[in-house]
UniProtKB/TrEMBL annotation:
Domain Thiamine-binding protein residue range list: 5-93
The name this protein goes by in its record: Thiamine-binding protein domain-containing protein
Family: Belongs to the UPF0045 family.
GO cellular component, one term: cytosol
Species of the source: Botrimarina hoheduenensis
Pfam families on file: Thiamine_BP
Record-linked PANTHER family: UPF0045 PROTEIN ECM15 (PTHR33777:SF1)
InterPro entries in the record: MTH1187/YkoF-like, Thiamine_BP, UPF0045_domain
Gene3D superfamilies found in the cross-reference section: 3.30.70.930
Length: 107
């Protein structure tokens, strides 16, 4: 499975890009793949071929309305794990809670 973090943004459209970005997020939602939107991009989980095809589709969707598009993408490929979209965050949160409990127990 792969986690793909991506940000696909049109250039030269002014201060706000929320409308064109919303179109890409709509496409991501239609894909059926698990995803999370955050302030600087979107993370999608799926097979390598699925997430790469989705990235291409988002770029092409944005390029249909805008002559120039910027894309930043980061992949985390791991064959032996699923459900990492939330699992990675939950693992860190558990460790933070353990650290907080340890700090409270120290005299």
């Amino acid at each position: 499975m792969v986690l793909l973090e991506m940000s696909v943004t049109p250039l030269g459209v002014g201060q706000s890009v929320s409308e064109p970005v919303a179109k890409c997020v709509g496409l991501i939602a239609q894909s059926g793949l698990p995803y999370e939107l955050h302030a600087m991009g979107t993370i999608v989980e799926g097979e390598l071929s699925e997430v790469l095809a989705l990235l291409q589709a988002c770029i092409e969707l944005m390029a249909a309305d805008h002559p120039r598009v910027s894309c930043v993408a980061k992949l985390d490929y791991r064959r032996d794990a699923r459900g990492r979209l939330r699992g990675k965050v939950e693992s860190v949160e558990r460790r933070l809670q353990q650290a907080d409990r340890s700090a409270e127990a120290t005299p």
